[in-house]
Amino acid sequence: MSGKARVRARRMPRAERERQMLDAAVRVIGRHGYQAASMDEIAEAAGVSKPLVYLYLHSKEALFTACVEREARTLIAAISEAVGQRDPADGQLWSGLLAFFRYADERADGWRVLHVQARTHGEPFARLADTMRARVLGFVTALLTSAARAADGTRDLGEHELTGLAHALVGAAESLATRAADDPALTPTASARTLMDFAWTGLGGLVAGERWS
Amino acid sequence: MSGKARVRARRMPRAERERQMLDAAVRVIGRHGYQAASMDEIAEAAGVSKPLVYLYLHSKEALFTACVEREARTLIAAISEAVGQRDPADGQLWSGLLAFFRYADERADGWRVLHVQARTHGEPFARLADTMRARVLGFVTALLTSAARAADGTRDLGEHELTGLAHALVGAAESLATRAADDPALTPTASARTLMDFAWTGLGGLVAGERWS
Asked: What is the mean pLDDT of residues A81-91?
């Protein structure tokens, strides 16, 4: 084994172990809350010693920050990978929303860390959550802008207005994900359908009996 | 002066003073955050002594709880008073949204206490904020239900679906109020118009050049 390969062999387990620690931390913090979560419990759930958690992630605050950042990256990657660039605008929106609600369902602890815990335990974490949310908003604004351009709606919809619509859509999605977390009978498909009905067809169409399809 | 009148005379200033303390607390907590806000600062802003604040509101936690409850009551009253029961459904929604964005604009500190501070400082306050939000959701669900009934859309829209639409609408409104708080150029009317376009006309209509009017 060359020197380089040995270094790589030592490094791989580190990345893997760090991933295990973050998985454990997200699980413990998502379920019991940041305040109640102890480093002992997180180390045990990760199957490592507590000093090793401190060695890798330095402090409970740094571990929490790393969890928030990783969950945000995972969510954004899931959405952007799901959206087919060549689909029609409503198809892109549907795929993106479905990916979002699936993330919130399958990684329920991650979603709680990102949306609830990061906003519940003081301002540095809340600011980080805002920064991560701004990235999602940017993505959604771009998606709506290309949708409007495809339909030649850019004559009517300015950048400022499209940003406003993105804020409305993201807020509606967050609210429905919170609802789904409280009601296990609600599937990601059901939430995505409700939001497509709301956001695409609009209440005006809905009360008149229309539906998005 | 009879005994009863004397009691009433002593009681009136108490209610008034308590209101002043809450006003001051909302201002200080809304601007500097719950953690940074001191009872000294709140007492000074209210023009009373610190022991008097403790006598009336017992603790910083109790004072904060009273602030959250009062702001939620004020917001709900503003919305429900604005909605004319005999207006068409979209007119009712417009009035309700305008009242909401006006509250968030005129009582910016109150909105920050309710929506940001109550969710940023631990779970008992976050739970209270959720309870208050559930009341708003109930009101909006009832409004959408009567809108659907008026348009005979109840054949198509079940209770569960209407609750989902209410969650979407409330989440969208919160998100736009947060945006408006960060951008002083955005008026309550502009935010209400964006949300009516989004929620009533829908993105499908908007990209095709439609607007709510």
From this structure: 86
Please name the residues in contact with A190: beta carbons below 8 A apart, sequence gap of 6 or more. Answer: A180
CATH of A60-207, one of 3.40.600.10, 1.10.357.10, 1.10.3720.10, 3.40.50.300: 1.10.357.10
B168 touches chain A (CB under 8 A): yes
Whether A2 has a pLDDT exceeding 70, the answer reads no
The token pair that represents A109 in the structure block: 């602890």
pLDDT at B54: 94
CB distance from B82 to chain A under 8 Å?
Answer: no
State whether B171 and A167 contact (CB < 8 Å): no
Question: Is A126–B148 a contact, with Cβ atoms under 8 angstroms apart?
Answer: no
pTM: 0.87
Report the pLDDT averaged over residues B49-56: 93
**Spans of all domains in chain A:** 1-58, 60-207
**Exposed e or buried b per residue across A169-191, where buried means at least 16 C-beta atoms within 10 angstroms of its C-beta:** bbbbbbbbbbbbbeeeebebebb
The answer on pLDDT for B4 being more than 70 is no
Query: Among the CATH numbers 1.10.3720.10, 3.30.70.100, 1.10.10.60, 1.20.810.10, which is that of A1-58?
Result: 1.10.10.60
Cβ–Cβ of A151/B203 closer than 8 Å? no
